[in-house]
Each structure stands twice: as C-alpha cells, then as structure tokens.
Design brief:
This protein is mainly α and 289 residues long. The protein has helices at 4-16, 21-39, 45-52, 55-62, 74-95, 99-107, 112-130, 149-167, 169-175, 180-185, 190-217, 222-244, 252-282, 284-287. The protein folds into three domains: 4-62; 71-138, no CATH class; 147-287, no CATH class. The model is unreliable at 284-289 (pLDDT under 50). It comes from Asanoa siamensis.
C-alpha cells in the first residue's frame, strides 16, 4: 500500500513525463505542492488524485501539446511517429540495393506508420471518453522510485549465484569429475587473476551491494541513483580493459566466447547507462522527490 507522499510522487512523475523538458521541474514542484495541500488529511488520497484528472489531461492543462489527436496524446504521437519512420528507413537502408530502390520501397512507404498511429490514438481517445471508469489512473511504483522487493530478492540471489559460478567454474568442474581439458579451458589466465580480475570482481560485488541496499530501503534515492550510474561506468571501463588486456581463460574457445559475451554486455550496459543518465537530467523532480 503506497503512502500519500508516494502516491503524489507517482502522479507527479506521470504528469511531468508528458511535458516538454524545460517545463518539467517547475511544473512538478508546483503540482507536488498543490497536491500535498489538496490531500492533507484525506482518508482516500487515491480517489482524490483520480478526481484531479488523468495525468495526460493535467499535462495538457499545464503545457501546450500538439493537437494531432487528443491533446494529452499529442507529444507521444509525434514521438512514436518519428521513431517508427526512422526505424523503417534504417532497416530499409540495410535491405535496399541502391538509393532509388530505398526511396521507392521504404522512403515513401514508411509514411503509412503515422497514419496507422492516428487510427490507434484515435481509438484510444474514443475508448477513454466512452468508458472512463476503465481508464482510471493507477499509480506505478516505479514512477515513485519504489522497487518490487520480491523480484529484487530473486534477482539478487540469481546474480550472486551467477557470480559464484563464474568465479569458481574450473573448481566446480573439477569437483564434478569433468575432463582435465574442460577444467583447464575454464581456468583463469594467471595475469587476469593477478591484475584485471580482482578489479572486475570488486566492482561486481559493489553493484550487488548497491542493489541489496535499494532492496532493503524499498526505493531508489538520489544518492543510490547517482552511485548506480557511476558504478556502471566504472564496470564498463573495467570490462573494456578486459577485452584488450590479454586472455581471460586458458582455453582459446572459452576465452573468445566470454569476450564476445563481454562485448555484448558492455554495449547493452552503456545504452542502459545512457538512458539512466538521461532520466537523471530530464527528471530532476523524481530524483529530488
């Protein structure tokens, strides 16, 4: 059960994400102060928030949304239109044989996507007006910075087990009676154990400790969000060094496989860190809430 303050945080976050970036911090602060006053002493804060209006409608009152479809959907419609057309163009560029072929096959054809979105958003707006009770606002725990404790505990146990198996793979294979060749293939290179390995392990343990802290507290806080980004950057830097600092395992096949996996992990992690940093910059109302 969310507290009144957590409900306000979730509601403000849902409103602010629909506004232009330049307005978000000011509107969030004003709206949060207004809602704290409105909900002071309320026995049913969720009902009061729902009576205040859907986040999209409130954002439309504060901002100047594009009026392609419903005002509350205007910015999302434009964003998804641009993203969809660009993706179709990029994929078409990989498949086309020449610029003229691309223009005929994908360049113009991609414009069906905004029309498709017009129909979808139009139907969504009609449904909201026709059956308003089905579209009542529901607080998202993630919007208030809260975490799913059972899911986090399960994920933490999984990553701890995975780290133990990764570090002790050769030892475990030896205890299970595996062939000496398999044990040797997953034995760490001495230079890796001496230099790079301990740094990577220390960073992994630090990240596990951070996620355990967030799980115990039950929510992300400004400090833990910034530490998460900083640790992620350090871990990516250490893993990039692993890719170029010599072998990880004595077995060539195992070494090439783990380095490919590390390259994929670094690419995905950097994208995730970029999104997290972007949220920290674009959503100061949530970080400071």
């Amino acid at each position: 059960m969310l507290t009144t303050e957590e409900l306000i945080d979730a509601y403000v976050a849902d409103v602010a994400r629909l506004l232009p970036r330049a307005q978000r911090a000011d509107v969030a602060a004003e709206l949060r102060a207004l809602l704290r006053e409105e909900l002071a002493g309320s026995d049913d804060p969720l009902a009061r928030l729902r009576a205040f209006g859907l986040p999209g409608d409130v954002a439309a009152r504060y901002g100047q949304p594009a009026t392609v479809v419903d005002p509350s959907d205007g910015r999302r419609f434009v964003r998804w239109s641009v993203v969809g057309v660009v993706v179709i163009w990029l994929l078409g560029g990989l498949a086309a044989t020449d610029p003229l072929d691309w223009y005929r096959s994908y360049g113009l054809a991609a414009l069906w996507w905004p029309g498709f979105l017009v129909v979808c958003f139009g139907l969504a707006g009609f449904a909201r007006r026709r059956w308003p009770a089905r579209f009542l606002w529901r607080p998202r725990k993630s919007a208030a910075g809260l975490v799913n404790r059972p899911g986090r505990v399960a994920a933490f146990a999984f990553w701890v087990l995975g780290t133990v198996v990764l570090v002790s793979a050769a030892w475990l294979l030896e205890r299970l009676g595996a062939a000496p060749e398999a044990v040797r293939a997953l034995t760490f290179d001495p230079d890796f154990v001496r230099f790079t390995g301990p740094v990577v392990l220390a960073l992994l343990v630090a990240e596990l400790a951070l996620y355990l802290t967030v799980t115990v507290h039950g929510r992300w806080r400004p400090l833990t969000r910034h530490v998460d980004v900083a640790l992620g950057l350090l871990t990516c830097a250490a893993l990039i060094r692993v890719l170029f600092a010599g072998p990880v395992y004595l077995g060539a096949a195992a070494d090439s496989t783990v380095k490919f996996a590390i390259a994929v992990i670094v690419a995905v992690s950097l994208l995730d860190l970029l999104l997290k940093a972007r949220r920290l910059i674009r959503r100061p109302h949530l970080v400071a809430g």
